[in-house]
Specification:
Chain B: Keywords: ATP-binding, Nucleotide-binding, Transport. The complex is a heterodimer. By secondary structure, chain A is mostly helical. Chain A has helices spanning about 1-35, 50-55, 65-100, 105-120, 120-130, 140-160, 165-170, 175-215, 220-230, 235-265. Chain A folds into two domains: about 1-40; about 50-265, MetI-like (MetI-like fold, Orthogonal Bundle). By secondary structure, chain B is α/β, with parallel strands linked by helices. Chain B has a domain at about 1-80 and about 190-260: Rossmann fold (3-Layer(aba) Sandwich), CATH 3.40.50.300. Helix content of chain B is about 40%, strand content about 25%. Chain B is built from eight helices and ten strands. Chain B has helices at about 50-55, 75-80, 95-105, 110-125, 140-155, 170-190, 200-205, 240-260, and strands at about 5-15, 20-30, 35-40, 65-70, 70, 80-85, 160-165, 190-195, 210-215, 220-225. In chain B, the strands form two sheets. Chain B has a six-stranded mixed sheet, sandwiched between helices. A four-stranded antiparallel sheet of chain B has the order 2-1-4-5. In chain B, helix 3 packs parallel to helix 5 (about 140-155) and helix 7 (about 200-205) crosses helix 8 (about 240-260). The longest helix of chain B has 22 residues, at about 240-260. The chains are: A mainly alpha, B alpha/beta. At the A-B interface, helix 7 and helix 8 of A face strand 6 and helix 3 of B.
Amino acid sequence: MDIALSPVRSARRVAPALAVILIILTLVVAWELIKLMFNLDKRTLPHLWEIAEAFGQPSRRNGPPLISVLIEAALYTLRGALLGFFIGAALGFVLGTLFAHLPLLERSLVPYVVASQTVPILAIAPMVVIWLRGSWWSVPVIAAYLTFFPVTINTLRGMRSPDPRAVELMGSYAASTWQTLWKLRFPSALPAIFTALKIAATASVVGAIIAELPSGVQQGLGGAILNFNQYYITGPERLWAAIFMAALVGILLFVAVSAIERIVLRNIVRGA
Amino acid sequence: MQSVVLLKNVNKSFGSAGRPTTVALKDINLEIGPREFISLIGPSGCGKSTLLRTIGDLIEVTSGELLVNGKPARQARINREYGMVFQAPVLFEWRTVLKNVELPLEIMGVPKTERTQRARAMLKLVELQNFERHYPWQLSGGMQQRVAIARALAFRPELLLMDEPFGALDEITRERMNAELLRIWQETQTTVVFVTHSIPEAVFLSTRVVVMSARPGRISDIIPIDLPYPRNVETREHPHFFELVTTVREALRKGEEMRET
């Protein structure tokens, strides 16, 4: 039995990894093909191996290699992004829960919540920096500003998602609003909340990087991007390297949230 | 003896400002005694589910008097004097079978060990004691509905309200569940109000069948069912069973004709 099954089992485990490798290979080939076809110079699009090489070389004369500079910057940015993520997620959860229970509040406040997201973050960020007198706190605040929106909307939707009969059932037990919230609405809302948290995870990294620019924070990825932007003509691959590092931070946060989601929702099999 | 449910001239109409109101229930008078098994039967839109929900205080009556165990329906709901079973099992998919049955006890603040004990006893009553660690999606439709019944009985209510609980099940499962419900009813000494579309189901289960007709929803007939106990597979083949089925069917037709004239 085991002998017959094992090739299938191992194939199932290898297949996703193989798919990832194939996609990466395709992207690499596409990158280099585009560069070749349109005859793009190094400034428009450097070779991937040039970017890879840049990671190993010092970014300043006699300085440490670029990769250690970027990792340090990434960790610094991650701190602001994570704090912003938690503040935004908490704020979004509280707002979404309040809106789900108080339709009047929902109708009067949701338009402003939506409006807050149509204002370009680039316009808001310098103001926040001024309001917070240029302190580091403007980074998590701006990250939270991008994070709270999807969490608010999805919490609201998730809290309203239970079967009306389940709500009636809780009513038949004379359950309090608080009991209905924790025993029915919150567990029902978890899948929607996790979807929002995954969006928020990547948004918080973008928010933190954007916030670092006007804050004059030098130690993060925002500072690195700004710095390498200025020397783009002489070393474009360094900016590209910083961009790859920023993407990596976002992906890591996303994967972390997904892993927690899988643990929390492991007992819920939908459509089974 | 005090009645479990007492309805006097109960009316219910739905509607909001600027819209014509629909009369869902008109002049409902019904008294249900302890240990009775009452079926509400009638065409769609006759208000049988509405009537059940007013008894459970999930819908407010527009006028008339409605007492459950001698108290206003709201007080009975707050005292948790009835259990409710819907057409769908409405189990919480993130809870195990045992935890689903414990839910009402949790809300009432029953201590953990007693909660588990009582939930286990209820699962034994519906013969699902070997499934307490399963999740709802791992059970068949009939088993899920049995969990819902165990949950409704977990806090030993004196009154069980059932809204077409077996409506989504196939005929064979349904007949088995009917027999099982009768056994549970006899073991637990509860009063049952049962909404159904099925005439044989109503006759098989009930002590009295309440026939309703639509637009406006009202009671057109009440038929006592004098089939002897225990009722089993043979009961369904008894000539008197067929006589009673015919009586209910004719009462339903008469109710329809009354509306047309």
